[in-house]
Write a structure and sequence with these properties.
The complex is a heterodimer of chains A (269) and B (506). By secondary structure, chain A is an alpha/beta fold. Chain A contains 8 helices and 11 strands. The model of chain A has no long low-confidence stretch (mean pLDDT 88). Chain B is α+β, with helices and mostly antiparallel strands. Helices cover 49% and strands 16% of the residues of chain B. In chain B, the strands form 3 sheets. Chain B has a 6-stranded mixed beta barrel. In chain B, α2 packs across α12 and α12 runs antiparallel to α13. Chain B starts with a helix and ends in a 9-residue tail after the last helix. The chains are: A alpha/beta (269), B alpha+beta (506). The interface between A and B is medium-sized, with 37 and 32 residues.
Chain lengths: 269, 506
Amino acid sequence: MAVVFHIDNITCRYPGSGVPVLSGIQVEIPAGARVGILGRSGVGKSTLLSVLGLLWEGDLEEGTVRYYGAGCDGFVDYRAISDAGKRAKIRLYDFGFLFQSSHLFSHLTCAENIALPLLLRGWSRSRWWPRVERLLSLVEHTPGELVGLAERFGPYSGGQTRRLALLRAVCHNPRVLLADEPFSNLDSASMRAVFRILEAWHENRLHPEDPPEARTLIIAGHDLEYLWELCDHFLVVRQGGKIFGDRIFRKEEITFERLSQLIHAEESG
Amino acid sequence: MQSARIILWFVVRNLFRPGRIAATVISSLAIMLLTLIALLGLGVLYGHREVERARLERDPLTQCLWLGHPAYRESWFTEERLAKLAEVLKTIPAVKEWYPCRELRLDWFLLREPPSDDSLSLPGRTFLPEDPIAQVVRKGATESAEPGVYITPEFLTTLGHKEGDPLPTEVLFRDSVGNPRKTKICGILDRELPWQHRFLVEERWFAEHLQGRPDVQAIRIQTGPLPSQWPREWEEFPEIVRTAFDQYGMLPPVWVEDEAERFVWDIRSWSHGGILLSQWFVCLEQVVRQMEGQGYSVTPPEKEQFLQIEALEAVGADSEETVPYHFVVLYVPELGRLKEVKAELERAGFIVRDPAHTIHRLDELGKRTATLSRVLGGILGLLGTSLFAMLASLQAMRTEVRRQEIALLKALGMSSSLAAAVLLGEATFVWAYSSGIGWGIAWPLGRFVIGPSLVANEPEFAGISFVIPVPTLITVMLLILLLSLTTVLSAAWKAFVTPPMRHVTA
């Protein structure tokens, strides 16, 4: 099976911190997988997403990550790309980010917020507007709920903000989507909408005009039920920034109960 | 091109959207104010300089060169030399016009009531009707068929006119045969004339009043019979009279008997160029006055007989010939070419003089403009520094907010250079329209409000032209742009080095 990320024995720590946030992680992430990263708060799930998404600007202390992207000649060794411009280009063209707390710019309209990755690619309004309008209609609870906001500067509810941030993360149809806690603090309708969008994007149904390809979804979160339903691979991050079993579990190899047990065991002690 | 479009997209939205507009308005006002003051100051300064320069250029007295010298006979303009000059000037197109003229030294009676016999010799010159000087002297003067004299303010004060006295309409002078004659004062000039000339007369005035008996330069003259009371030996004359002879340029006289066996004086001038006949008359009249002062009485008939002067030896011409022109006035409208024309004429063998005050006035104008530029530069420097401090503080306050935004944009894929370029683009954009507005206000304000108030009393300058030399304009605009960019330099650098956001917190 093709691999999208080869995480090779990485160790990293925050500047000034004696304890490594990730320690000796060695795992491969298959291309096209839906990976759930589980673990209690503060074990390094978000940091692992940052490292994979080239947002970790500090040098990796040990090891490296190899990204096997479509536009890459073979793979990109994260240790080898010190040029911030190249990093930004990979983030812009290959990755999509849904951060833990969505942040929308108050001086941009709803539509402009969503279209930011497309704008950074140089798309004109006439090109991005239909795409954004269609995406908005896909996550509406009621007709016109979000399309009506397209030209406005907010304010948005918590659920609307999260859905808009998700649309921003997928509007440019990235190869890899890195989502941090996408379901937290959402009502069930919004959770369902987020779920639908993630699934549609992964299955190349969100942007039918783009050629289909293997899209990798990597989600860090606590909500095991949604992650179990959505993901087909699981990583359990333990205290000390290590991976449980030093491996990634396929859904067939582990039960919901076992996963739950692992997480709760970590949490209790 | 695509990058420029992206930068412009972010710049416009960052500047003019809710929550941003207040800071943008403050920055815009600061840049606009600086541009307005800078351009207004410079525009008025340079515009005023242009007016001053135009005044100089319009003034015939400051755009001329003078050929020849009244004291040097060789430099006088006979018909032959005028023809030669005409040939030479065909090759010098910078000389727009040229006119020959004569220098006159006339004896003018003091302005006293009742009229006095006291007179003073003052120099002046003639002019032809086409001479541009005519426009100056006739300004404000009433048109009159009768030719008269145009005098300088100093002419009046020298002849005893006091401030507050009514201005005279006529003045008395002594003609070439020594008789007092009245002439009309056609105008009083608002300035002094070069070469210490105190009056101007038209050539036709000269022909009417003086050419009846040509006022030739005479090296040797003969007086009429000496008054009976006067001594027969030169050494017996009072010291004061003998000294005066030398001062007037006369050598001691020789006693000669005339046809009626009366003694007359044969006097030579020690001056190489001789003395104008009219001047001989003035000098000898002074001698009569001094002798009377020393107790040697002279009856009026004796005085009249004594002052019947004959020119025995005129310079370059016999006494019947018209006096040649003493010099030629050349008009060079392009003041910058005065020196070049002067050099060419000197190469052609002419004595060329330029009125020192023309060059002096030009130099003064340049120095004054330079000084005012420095003062203005200082004021603008202070203003610019204050505005810089204000804008830099404003940017510093916004930096933290902007850093978070930029970190998020970088996480989404914005490059560091693009992030910095957006901030620099904002400063450039604000500069572009703010300085445009500043210019748009400065120009009409300077041209139609401030300019006219500076030169309101001169109908030929209905407002200053609000001129800023292009290099100065570009320099000022670039300096303001630099100031504008400098205020965001720190923020741009921070944007460049800010790492992409890893975790976004609300």
